[in-house]
Sequence to fold (127 residues):
Amino acid sequence: MTGYVSRLQIAEKVCIQTEALNVLHDSLGVDGSHDVIERAVVEVAERMGAVEQSLLLGDLDRLRRAARSLGSIGEQLGFLLLSRVARDAITCADRQDMNALHAVTERLIRVGDASLAAAINGATLPN
Fold:
């Protein structure tokens, strides 16, 4: 069976902890919480780009900082899987395990994209 290439379709299913968003909603109101969430979505996207770029440049210190920030933002928004995978990336960077770091970073991007899609589509916004 040589000559066949299979393409794997990998999708990350994210679970959003709505309690974190409800706290924002209760403390800031509808408009205030939506503004904070929108800004946080932009920050998540920027941090994901920084992680990816840092990996390409081999700058593990910058990657750690960006992943730590990404994890913190994820926790505040209730994106628990994003936070956990960001911590995994930091662990791989600390161990200088580049093979694992590449794999975990790819997963971090998939989870981040899925989390952003959920936020953008309004699935995570309190009514």
